[in-house]
């Protein structure tokens, strides 16, 4: 097995050693707590939310200029549609988690196919795949996501594909570079000298040892995905129903009452920023824990 899966100089496996370093890293702990809280809120939203999402049963209490004050029944008040604002925030986490995770998995799958082909076969296949990746990378990620979402229409599936399309070239280039590095390692030459077929060497040794940087990047891309979900919804490319609980859409609608009810804008923006910060802290800490050159 290759060096990245072997034990290090202390006799500890790479992933076990990385976990031990993460436990001693304050940034990793803070990021892990934020990410865990976000996941718990998203997964258990039906249990945590006081009401059903997107309900407008209190719309008769809303006027063009005023909203009802905070109350025990509605701790954060109502939004402009007459929905409980706390419920919308909680279910907004679920929407962001689902779209963010699915889009990142789709981007990872697409990038793994392209990067795996380029790294495993090489030659003209590598050249062709990398030129396609270069073309995709030349387009700004948000512009590419907006274009795909606009073509597919206003629905959650369009957001997932749009964000994934922007992530594919990043994962492809990263996996290809990691595989090229692993193919130059001594264990690959040793495996070939033992008579193992190139396909076996690639699938059993090169690919598993190349996934570390990709997994780290996937964690970081979750932060980017959550921000892009909000950005696309902010631009009006999300679900057509304006009452759907989504942080980006809540930002847009809250701007109409920014001066009189700033929490309608501040709280969704804060949720987006804190969640993205959590994934970023965790991803960067994981990168440092896995990369010997970055260890403190």
Question: How would you summarize this macromolecular structure in one to three sentences?
Answer:
With 296 residues, the chain is an all-alpha fold.
Please explain how this structure is put together.
- The protein has 296 residues and is an all-alpha fold.
- The protein has a domain at 38-49 and 81-173 and 212-290: MetI-like fold.
- Helices cover 69% and strands 0% of the residues.
- It has helices at residues 14-23, 26-43, 45-48, 85-121, 123-137, 141-152, 156-183, 186-193, 198-234, 247-254, 263-290.
- It starts with 13 loop residues before the first helix and ends in a 6-residue tail after the last helix.
- 40% of the residues are buried.
CATH superfamily of the domain at 38-49 and 81-173 and 212-290: MetI-like
What percentage of amino acids are in beta strands?
Answer: under 5%
Distance between the termini: 27 Å
How many E strands? Answer: 0
Radius of gyration, CA atoms, in whole angstroms: 23 Å
Q: Helix amount, in percent?
A: 55-70%
- Mean pLDDT, to the nearest integer, reads 80
- Give the CATH topology of the domain at 38-49 and 81-173 and 212-290: MetI-like fold
Question: How many strands, what sense, and barrel or not for the largest sheet?
Answer: none
User: What is the count of helical runs?
Assistant: 11
H/E series: HHHHHHHHHHH
Instruction: Specify the overall morphology.
Output: elongated
- Structural class designation: mainly alpha
CATH architecture of the domain at 38-49 and 81-173 and 212-290: Orthogonal Bundle
Enumerate the spans where pLDDT stays under 50 for 5 or more consecutive residues: 1-11
Question: What is the CATH class name of the domain at 38-49 and 81-173 and 212-290?
Answer: Mainly Alpha
């Amino acid at each position: 097995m290759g060096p990245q899966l072997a034990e290090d100089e202390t006799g500890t496996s790479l992933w076990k050693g990385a976990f031990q370093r993460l436990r001693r890293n304050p940034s990793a702990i803070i990021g892990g707590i934020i990410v865990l809280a976000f996941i718990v809120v998203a997964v258990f939203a039906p249990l945590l939310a006081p009401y059903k999402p997107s309900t407008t049963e209190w719309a008769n209490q809303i006027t063009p200029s005023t909203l009802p004050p905070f109350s025990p029944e509605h701790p954060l008040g109502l939004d402009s549609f007459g929905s409980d604002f706390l419920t919308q925030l909680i279910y907004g986490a679920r929407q962001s988690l689902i779209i963010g995770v699915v889009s990142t998995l789709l981007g990872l799958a697409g990038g793994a196919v392209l990067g795996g082909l380029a790294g495993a076969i090489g030659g003209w296949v590598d050249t062709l795949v990398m030129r396609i990746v270069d073309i995709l990378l030349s387009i700004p990620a948000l512009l590419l996501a907006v274009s795909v979402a606009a073509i597919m229409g206003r629905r959650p599936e369009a957001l997932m594909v749009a964000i994934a399309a922007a992530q594919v070239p990043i994962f492809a280039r990263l996996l290809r570079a990691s595989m090229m590095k692993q193919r130059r390692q001594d264990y690959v030459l040793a495996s070939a000298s033992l008579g193992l077929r190139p396909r076996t060497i690639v699938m059993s040794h090169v690919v598993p040892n190349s996934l570390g940087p990709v997994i780290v990047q996937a964690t970081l891309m979750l932060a980017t995905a959550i921000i892009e979900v909000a950005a696309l919804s902010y631009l009006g490319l999300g679900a057509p129903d304006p009452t759907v609980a989504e942080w980006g859409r809540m930002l847009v609608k809250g701007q109409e009452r920014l001066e009189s009810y700033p929490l309608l804008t501040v709280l969704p923006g804060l949720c987006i920023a804190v969640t993205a910060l959590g994934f970023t802290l965790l991803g960067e800490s994981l990168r440092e824990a896995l990369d010997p050159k970055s260890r403190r």
